[in-house]
Structure prediction request, 217 residues.
Amino acid sequence: MRKVRVGFVGLGWVVQVGHLPGCKHIEVVDVVAGADIREDVLNKVSSRWNFRGYTDFEEMLRKENLDAVCIATGPTLTRGITERVAEHGVNVLVEKPMALTLEDAKSMVAKCEEEGVKLCYGESMRFLPACRKAKEMIDDGLLGKLSLLMETGVGGRGLEHFESYHIYPPGAPGAGGWGLTDHGIHLVDIFRWLTGDEVEWVFGRGDRTGQPPATEF
Prediction:
């Protein structure tokens, strides 16, 4: 059985606790390489998971015969990396949020179509057992007509520990790990998927990186 040769760009916490352990449970996937500009992280993760490490992702693309690349960097970098990966004829899985602007997202889609490679957006909540069961119940009409969907999360260490995510540029949306941009992007997708409906209008307010936190809605 031929395995899918996968490489990673960005080896942060989500990749370490989610992607790499998950790949070990998929028989057809072989993680052969990873790239990260932080040498200490690169050395630790590549040694732990036994793959070849690169500080330059383009060197990885040149030297490794990859079938797919998973991009798990900050969203300000995803467009450039995606387009370079596509130019090497390699399929792309990009983490959320896909980009910070509609222009960048459309460019990524167009480039992958032009190069004839597949582009997949990593919306993991569609695959959670509880969400799949909810989808089944909704589709079977067991819940009747839906009028409201909500997500409630309890956590955090208090205002004094609030930190803006460094992967989002100052002044941009995305402050805080449970914020409207960084986590709420899941809900934008999952609510559409659960209901089978398209968005008609939106209204909201979210925090911006580097600014004091406030209520998001």
Observations:
- The CA atoms of residues 5 and 192 lie 32 Å apart.
- The two ends are 48 Å apart (CA to CA).
